[in-house]
C-alpha cells in the first residue's frame, strides 16, 4: 500500500516575508498567491523497514533528506501517531536547473501523501496547516487559483481560497537568468529582514496589499492586481536592502524596466521576484505570446522563459 499526491507551486503576489514564530512557521503578515499549472511535485509515501528518500530517481542524503524526515517526525507527533519508517519518492516537475524553488509544491505534496497514507481525513484547512509546518509557502499550494494565507496562531494560520472572476485570464512568465543557488535561504533572509527599521511598515503594507488584491480579483481588474503585486515585490526587495543584503541582480532590474516599458507602450505587464534574481512577469493570457517575444529581444537570448497559467489544488489518493 502507498499514497500518492500531486501539488503545484505557487507565485506570491503579496509576499510572505517575515515570521511571527519561526518554529511554527507563523507569518508576520498575510500573503496572497496564484497556484500555477506548469510546475508541480509528485510524491509517493509508503511504510518501509527504514527511512529512505528518493528524489528525482536518486536516493537523497544529507540536508535535503534531513529536512524531509525531521518534518515527517513533526507530523507524526502533531497527529499523535506512533513513529514509523517511511519510503518517500518525489519527482519535481519544476525546472530546478533554471534556479526554481520547489519547497511549496514539495511540502504540500508530502503533507497530502502522508495524511492519505495514515487516513487522517484532514479538512483543507488542516492540510494547509500541516503543509505550513514544512515550508510556509506550501500552505498556499493546497488550493488552486488564488488564495490568501491568513495571519494568526498555530491553528488559525492557513490558506483560504479566493474565488476568481471568470474573465481574469492571467498568465505568468518566469524569466530565468541562471541557476546558481541563492547564498541566503528564505528562512535566513526573513530572519535578517526583521531587523530592518521598516519591518513594521512592511507588515502593514502587506495587509493593505492583500485587501486591495482581493478587491482586484473580485472585480477582474487585472491592472489593479498587477500594480499591487509589483509594488509588493519592490517593497520586499527594498526591505532586504534596508537589512543590508539583496537577491536582485542587474538582470532582475532589467526585467523590472522591461515590464514598465511594455506598460508605457500599452501592454499590461507587471514584475515580481522572490528570494533570488530570477523574475516573474504577470500578463494577460491573450498577451503572453507578445510578452514572450518582446522579453526575448529585450533581455537577450540567454534568458530562459517558462510560461504558466493558473493551476489546480493538491490531489491525493491511496494506492493498493
Ligand atoms: C519569497 O516558504 O520558502 O517565495 O517558511 O522559511 O520555508 P520557509 O520559507 P518559504 O518562503 C517563501 C518566500 C517567498 C515569498 C512567498 O512565497 O510568499
Task: Spell out the key features of this protein.
binds ligand DP6, Ribosomal Protein S5, domain 2, 8 helices, 8-stranded mixed beta sheet, 14 strands, 2 domains, Alpha-Beta Plaits, alpha+beta, 320 residues, 4-stranded antiparallel beta sheet, 27% strand, globular
In short:
The chain has 320 residues and is of the alpha+beta class. Helices cover 36% and strands 27% of the residues.
Strand and helix order? EEEEEEHEHHEEEHHHHEEHEE
Quickly count the helices: 8
Category by helix and strand content? alpha+beta
Radius of gyration: 19 Å
Oligomer: single chain
Level-1 CATH class name of the largest domain: Alpha Beta
Work out the helicity level: 25-40%
* Strand percent estimate: 25-35%
When the domains are counted, the total is 2
Task: Estimate the mean pLDDT confidence.
Answer: 96
Describe the 3D structure.
The protein has about 325 residues and is of the alpha+beta class. About 35% of the residues lie in helices and about 25% in strands. The protein folds into 2 domains: about 1-165, Ribosomal Protein S5, domain 2 (2-Layer Sandwich), CATH 3.30.230.10; about 170-310, Alpha-Beta Plaits, CATH 3.30.70.890. The chain has 8 helices and 14 strands. A hairpin with a 2-residue loop joins β5 and β6. About 45% of the residues are buried. The model has no long low-confidence stretch (mean pLDDT about 95). The protein binds ligand DP6. Ligand DP6 binds near residues 25 and 137. Ligand DP6 binds near residues 12, 16, 136 and 187.
